[in-house]
Amino acid sequence: MSSLSGEVPRHTRSLAREILSDTPLLVVQGARQVGKSTLLRQVLSPDDSVFVTLDDPTTRRFAEEDPVQFLRQAPGKTLAIDEAQRVPDLALALKLVIDEQRIPGAYAITGSADLLRLKGTGDSLAGRASSLTVRPLSQGEISQRSDPEDFISWVANGCAGNLDSSASPSDIRERVTAGGYPEPLKRSTFRARSRWFRDYVDQLLRHDVPQLAGESSQMLHSFEPLIRLLASQGESELVVARLAERLGIVGSTLRMYLDTLDTMFLTETLPSWGRGYSGRVVRRPKLSLVDTGLGSSLTGFTPEASHQADGFEFFGAQLEAFVSSELKKQQTWSETIYRLYHYRQRNDEVDIVVELQDGSVILIEVKSTSQVRRDSWTSLQRISEKLGARVRASVVLYTGEKGYCIDESRSLYVLPVGLLWEHATIPTPLPSQ
Predict the structure, then answer these.
(1) Distance CA 412, CA 362 (A)
(2) DSSP letter for each residue of 403-424
(3) CA-CA-CA-CA torsion for 282, 385, 368, 197, nearest 10 degrees?
(4) At a CB cut-off of 8 Å and minimum separation 6, what does 252 contact?
């Protein structure tokens, strides 16, 4: 895996343009440095837009003192406002000017905090805005695919074409530890990426946490230990009491801290699936950092460490988080509407349950090995038998390069992780002569 150079075209461009064509306000949200402003630059023409940032003190003061006039500074153009959470009261002014004249694409704002969850903001923007969450780069974007990857649609339609992948086990390890933040991907070494992530966490602690949690909040002291603790667990079930004990705080305080991390788009959750299926289903969600590159950097976990006995288990948790993250990114542009869950009951466990709009499911098990044994899919078979026709397909993802159809009648596959972003496309039939 080579380092990035230049700006990467985002797969969410078409959706952003669609929103701007019929909605007065586009709200682009996501963690800092994932490429929100870059996306807007790729979507908006310089001749038809004006960009301002509320990170600039002078601009922020203008927005605070005269918000209505601030919003009217670009008549006939799209006013793109970066880091809009810096002035939460701007939401009321946006409501006023949008209600005066509803012009599609009049405003586009970005925020590294969930603007719709900030006090007073959600109510003010309801019915006037469409939100688009930007995550770190997908592996298809990093590989600069011209067509967006859509793994779930491909599996749901029968995994047509070649089942093999060109991504080697070492390439998978590199991708997992590198993650998808654009800037560190431009660095050629793990050490250089780690230095960037350390500075990144320090900036969040100094600027964003005080704004969201308050200058005197205990979270200022707990932020870095908490985020490092989450990094050390990869993707794992959230046990609040255990985490709180390790940090030396009470559970209610930890929940507030976790809510702040979620508002900052630094964590991802995978809810439990199986409501109504059995009362013995584990209800806890799984929790992970938004990016495996961030997690690897904070723990010092390198591709080489994944081969060692004490790093193998952690790599498995990181790989599971990596797969979940890629599928969440693809949700934004996939032709198939789906939701993601995990499932565990007694001895039965499924890493990822993909529930489609019609109620059918795709069961996915993630293995960190480059080879799989027969017992790798026995749990999937057992659950598939219980659910019957509701299961569209069952997939074991592993770090090898060869793909197999184990049982065509039940759509049971063993597939390389690399097919998440380089899966075969359904071939177009040649015209009859």
Answers:
(1) 10
(2) -EEEEGGGTEEEEETTHHHHPP
(3) -40
(4) none
296 token code pair: 């690897």
Q: What is the pTM of this model?
A: 0.91
What pLDDT, in 10s, does the model give residues 186-204? 998 899 999 999 999 999 9
What six digits make up the tokens of 1?
A: 């895996």
Encoded amino acid at 309, one letter? A
Q: Is 111 helix (H, G, I), strand (E, B) or coil?
A: strand
- CA 238 to CA 98: how far, in whole Å? 41
Question: CB atoms < 10 A from the CB of 277, how many?
Answer: 13
Question: How high is the pLDDT of residue 1?
Answer: 62
Contact indicator for 289, 266 with CB cutoff of 8 Å: yes
In whole angstroms, what is the distance from residue 224 CA to residue 364 CA?
33
The residues near 79 (Cβ < 8 Å, ≥ 6 apart) are 49, 50, 52, 71, 73, 106, 107, 108
The residues of the chain scoring below 50 in pLDDT are 276, 279, 424-433
The phi and psi torsions of 172 (rounded to 5 degrees) equal -60, -45
CA atoms within a 13 Å half-sphere pointing along the CA-CB vector of 343: 24
Q: What is the 3-state secondary structure (H, E, C) of 194-223?
A: HHHHHHHHHHHHHHHHHHHHCCCCCHHHHH
Q: Strand 236-237: give its sheet, edge to edge.
A: 236-237, 286-289, 267-270
Residue located via tokens 């869950």: 341
Q: Which two tokens stand for residue 41?
A: 């630059």
Helices (H), 134-189: 139-142, 151-156, 169-178
Query: Rounded to the nearest 10 degrees, what angle do helices 190-203 and 292-299 cross at?
Result: 100
- Residue 144 exposed, middle or buried by CB count within 10 Å (0-12, 13-18, 19+): exposed
Q: Is 310 exposed, middle or buried (0-12, 13-18, 19+ CB in 10 A)?
A: exposed
Residue ranges in 84-159 assigned as alpha helix (H) = 90-100, 121-125, 139-142, 151-156
Structure tokens at 37: 């402003």
Question: Among 188, 184, 190, 171, which Cα is nearest to 419's?
Answer: 171
